[in-house]
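Progress note, project year one: complex with flavin-adenine dinucleotide.
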Amino acid sequence: MSPPSLLQAHPKLSGTAPNALSYELYPPRTPAALANLWTTIRELESTNPDYVSVTYGASGSNRNTAVELLNRLLTETTLRPLAHLTCVGNTAQELAAIVTDLLDHGVRGILALRGDLPNGAQPQHRPGSLTYAQDLVELIRRVEQRRTALLCAGKVAVGVAAYPKKHPESPSEEHDVEVLLAKQRSGADFAITQVFFHPSEYEELLARARRAGVTIPLIPGVMPLTSVRRLQRLGTLAGVEPSPDLVRALAAADDDGERRRIGVRATVDLARAALDAGAPGIHLYTFNEHGAALDVLDKLQLLRPERPRSVHRQSAL
Ligand code: FAD
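Model obtained:
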């Protein structure tokens, strides 16, 4: 007789897996924005997310504020930061030094991105620079390998971007999936998606990716859909069309309260559809504001692991 499977023997391992939860923040540009951000950080911290990601200006312009924010998250909160890093704006040598520095400060998660090219520029291989996110994944893995002994407390989690709708420079959605597969082969552990506005877009990405052999978790990046201006701006930047019905409903709303109710409902529907399609969790683009993000979270009722409530290590505000 064969021994019982691990899952049968341990009821806690069977049943539905908990959902991952994470938020995106960006480094603040002014002292007032910094103070607001810390209110948001404390509110988000109380929801016990798995990690918070910190964006990186494509030109490396906000490098110091990004590193400062990552360090403060590590030393003053219980949150685990995921550092975004881009090929654009840095040489390979500089990137290796930044990765080393991040690891030395205790960062254990990096989102490896190419970054947006300056207006109208074409991707091109420059000696000493990295062309694609895949190259950055490989560079991170090389730095990690050199520091294996120092990292014995855990490996570095490397994330990459995935696109429910075609990347603006890409010839097709199939090509995007080939790129995602290449990033996985180079050592990516998971992917976070670009914003999307229609439930079927995530489901179709998941189906395309799994057919092509992508096995890593694809975490839907969901943006609280409460501002027409932001919807349209992000839609243009990412090359995705917001739902005209939602834009109309938000534009016709009488006040901010009604806009928030409409937007939160639409966001919850989108996130719920992604979870029903098999998403392993949700990554919320917060724009450094916690109100709508927490409303969405409240209504989504994610299945989360039970963890002891942690007390802040220190509040230096
Ligand atoms: P890549 O995967 O390198 O793809 C870029 C383009 O090149 C695509 O069209 C792809 O099809 C093509 N391509 C890739 N590899 C190959 C290959 N081997 N051969 C031929 N073609 C190839 N930008 C920032 O500046 N800072 C941020 O903090 C930031 N955070 C982001 C977070 C998320 C979750 C997402 C989804 C995007 C983020 N971006 C950020 C935007 C991102 O930098 C842009 O979307 C950028 O245009 C592409 O980045 P990528 O990592 O997907 O690049």
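The pocket of flavin-adenine dinucleotide is lined by residues 55-56, 58, 84, 86, 111, 113-116, 123, 132-134, 161, 167, 169-170, 175-176, 179, 182, 192, 194, 221 (CB under 6 Å).
Residues 18-300 form a domain with the TIM Barrel fold (CATH 3.20.20.220).
No further modelling is planned for this target in the current period.
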